[in-house]
## 1
Amino acid sequence: MNLGNITLITPPDRLYNSNISYLLIKPSTKLKLQFQQKLSKMNEDINVYVFDSDEHDIDWLLSVCQIVTFVIIDVDNCDSLTKLFLSLILSQPNSFYYTNDDSIPFNLISRNRIYDLDWIESILNDNEEEDE
């Protein structure tokens, strides 16, 4: 079994290729570990963009949201600046959000709420079948 290459990309960089790409926005340690577990089972080359806790380049964030395959937002971990742009990011069909807060009705903007990252495996399996 040959594992794929994972390219980690952070602001201000961008990478333009045909790989499946993920953008993790303000991921908690728990979410990072889950994501790492899913990636360890991959056979494809992928790009992983990370907008982490110390990042504040909103221009970069919004532009990368437009070029990646999937956006994963840890809403509970977002700072006040990033939260200003949540509704715009969540309105994109490729955005998925993780939150424990049921008081804010994010579901009015997006139905793509996730509780874990198990869905990534099914997407990866679908892509591997298409390649065969």
## 2
Amino acid sequence: MSKIKTISLDLPAFWASALINSDESGLEDEEQERLDAWIKDNPNLYCIDVSEETFFSKYHDAADCGVLPCDCAEFTFQEITE
């Protein structure tokens, strides 16, 4: 039986359209590569919301994928596990 839990992560605000609406048209190639790497590392996360407020952060949850400090937003995900 699958379990669903809700988690919040601080991620680049410019990923919002791609994660919420599956619209990646505004991303540059390098930004797309970083997002693809993050999605590959987090295959069980499904974005359900993003905050309207943004904040600059040197440390965020996409830093391991090579994303530099940037304006971030709080994203809410459902995580589905077996």
